[in-house]
Each structure stands twice: as structure tokens, then as C-alpha cells.
Amino acid sequence: MGTVLRFLGAFPTEEELVSDILPQLIQDGDALHISYPPFEKLMLQIFADQLYEPDSEEVLLQAFRALDPEGKNYVEEDVMRDALMEGEYGFNEKEIEAFLAIAKDPQTGLIHYEDYITYVVNQRDT
């Protein structure tokens, strides 16, 4: 569901997705199937109220800089992988690989986060 919401331009956190959004969409305890009418109603509300807007470039930059305390302007793959897997709503392997396919420099294997943020913001604006 998070992938669908992000594709449509809504960017809830994983916690918001689990605690706020999914309970509104799950009917009769069936978490595997979501019918269209409640989904449409919720999406219209999300867009009308401008909920779950994407983070700004500065917020994204701050997040990456937290993983780069030495100020090298890049993050190594293992550091990023560990960060993405942390917490109750950590990424799964498929999500990590999808992220790395875009974010990681194929020559160096490093994540030059300013380049990645530029890419993400440009994709968002198209």
C-alpha cells in the first residue's frame, strides 16, 4: 500500500501507514484485500487535506548527513543498509535493493546523497 500511495504522491511514514491508513482500508479483518471505494474515499481526503506531503530537500539532506558524521558527502552501502533495516518498520531486502539500484554509484559503490536527493526531487517534480 505504501508503494501505491507514494506513486500517487502521498508520502506517509511507515508508522502512519500502519497505524492510520491501513486500519481505514481493511474491512472484515481481511488485510490482503482492499476494496476500491474506501481507498478512493481516503485518497480524496488525503489530497484535499494535503496530508503526507514529501519531505523537503533540506530534511532529506539532514537525514543523510546524520549517517555521514565525518562530512564525506557520501554514505557507504553497509551503513545505509543497516540504517534502512533499523526499527519496527525497517525496509525489507527487496526495498533496499530497489533503493540501492538508484542511489548507489555503480563505479564506487557509494551513495552520494546530494546527487540522490537531486534525482528524487527531480522525479517528484515531473
Topology summary:
Blueprint: H1 2-7, H2 14-25, H3 36-48, H4 57-66, E1 75-76, H5 77-85, H6 93-103, E2 110-111, H7 113-125
Antiparallel strand pairs: 1-2
Helix pairs in contact: 4-7
Notes on the protein architecture:
- With 126 residues, the chain is mostly helical.
- The chain is 59% helix and 3% strand.
- A two-stranded antiparallel sheet has the order 1-2.
- Helix 4 (57-66) runs antiparallel to helix 7 (113-125).
- The mean pLDDT is 91.
Specify the overall morphology.
Answer: elongated
As a percent range, the share of helical residues equals 55-70%
Strand fraction equals: under 5%
Number of helices: 7
Oligomer: single chain
Low-confidence segments, given as residue ranges, are: none
Order of strands side by side in the largest beta sheet? 1-2
Radius of gyration: 17 Å
Helical/strand content category: mainly alpha
Give the overall average pLDDT. Answer: 91
Order of helices and strands: HHHHEHHEH
End-to-end Cα distance:
22 Å
* Number of E-type strands: 2
Sheet having the most strands? 2 strands, antiparallel
Give the tags.
7 helices, 126 residues, two-stranded antiparallel sheet, mainly alpha, single chain, 2 strands
